[in-house]
Please model this.
Amino acid sequence: MKNQGSLVQLENVAIGYKSHTTKVVKSGITLEALPSELVAIIGENGVGKSTLLKTLGGFLPPIEGKLTIGEKSVHEYQEKELAKILSYVSTEQIRVPNLNVYDLVSLGRYPHTNWFGKLMTEDRLLIEEAIVAVGLQGFEDRLVNNLSDGERQKVMIARALAQDTPIIILDEPTAFLDLSNKFELVHILQQLARTKGKTILFSTHDLTTALSESDRMWLMLKDSIQQGSPEDLILNGSFNALFDQKKLNFDREKGDFKIRKTTTRLAIVTGDGERLTWTTKALERNGILVADH
Amino acid sequence: MKEAALTYHNPNQRGLKMLVLLAILLPIFFLLDLRIGSYPISFSDILKALFNPLNLDNQVFLIVNQYRIPKAITAILAGAALSVSGLQMQTVFRNPLAGPYILGVSSGASLGVALVVLGTGSFIGWESISLLSSWGIVAAAWLGSALVLMLIIAISAKIREIMTILIMGILISSAISALVNILQYYSNEATLKSFVIWTMGSLGSVTNPQLSVLVPSVIAGIIIALLCSKFLDAFLLGENYAQSLGMNIRFARTMVFVSTAILAGSITAFCGPIGFIGIAVPHIARIMLQSAKHSLLIPATILIGAIIMLISDILSQLPGSQRILPINSVTALLGIPIVIWIIIRNKSSVNF
Model:
């Protein structure tokens, strides 16, 4: 694979918007992502996830600090050069009449084809490979407008794959999807990172899938940014800082958040297996603490 | 190594078949358009005029050669140019109702023309306009179109909503009409009459010397459009995606707008503002081809636009009568039902 040494590295970066005045959204960001890693970017709304992704994608220049993509700093790239290293899937829903799946995925070949966009055999092989990788073989002639949200998101990922870049960035790829599609999609991303050696970064609000599939997490907190494997972040208590601790409580054993409730009564439950787990859950919902015994 | 064979073998078969069909239909309608007119001329005489003029009555030859052929060629050029500029505008603005007429680009062109024609008072009738002033009028129309396009870019950078931009286009058109009205108010009667007739749109007033300006202009605009087909495909996904695919947005947009301004401006300069072809034809092309690829859509809109303009011209002759309708009315009556259908479909389904 040609992905040796290609990675994303942020050293003391400040992100934000520069127009008449500079608005810094977040500063002092030091993070990295390695080849073959699936990186989940987690954080509350408004904490700067989208700004970070736009900066990583080259749409916004970093206000200060050093952002290295592959071997160079991000602003040293020409548009076309960057497009061969980094592909981007945004939250925007694509609705184009009469555009079929094959033609949309083939747009991923844009930086590699000639002036007229002529597809050579190699291009067509990569397009087909990308369609197979997201499990959409047989959908080539289907119109994008007639697909479900999950299918359309897979097409957009196939387009990024066809771009054949060592780094893929996705902004909330699971936002419009139902539960089973969320798991399936994140699993596809994880497989792609493993089998193709790509660095895949995605932002999400869905902790469960991120915890089970990602190799690394970038945890964007209000006053700091943590990174590490999901397991390390759980064990060192970083997750508790993610949400308002007065309202939510992170269960380290189950890897999930719970709304904090004042418990007034105590109960002792005996039993085992699934029945015990779910009975305990029902009691807790009603404000009754179940004692360990 | 890659040994897997390609499994997908359907690179727009339907599109290519449609292009062949359209390419066959075009000469048929061209001949029909030459055939129909107030003076009856048989098909055999038309073929003689085209290929064997020596064996033909001189008067018939003159009608065909000096009047009907330039008119039919103008129809083809106008249909092709307006449709391609409409296609490009719809893609770049991501707006199914964009077109040179509705967004005021044609008005911009007519302001350019009005400034040259009414302003300088050199308007003595189209036939007497020299080659030099033909180029002057065309250039003024290009500038006018480009000006309006830049205005619309500036507005659409702030406002994303499709309908709002359309209303802006209508307002721009109205403002320009007001300016043109002022110019008209201060011009003499003869000039005024010629200008008013020009605003109704006409294919028949284009003379052979003017064609020598119009033909290269339209061909240049179409060549630039074809060179932009890859840019246009990327524009379908929006500017962010286009940029992430490595496209230089500024350069691509400039190329597309130069082509649009040349195409819409040239036609408006010589034929007057012709509406609704630019909006309707790209939709017909997309539906016929079931494709969104511009390398196919541009040739298809050229052919469909040319055919529809020839049909409009035939209808404007009111076959069987001695009267002629203004071409602008015919294209409006043909095009507006299609535009209404697009709006209804737009509201009721996911398309665009």
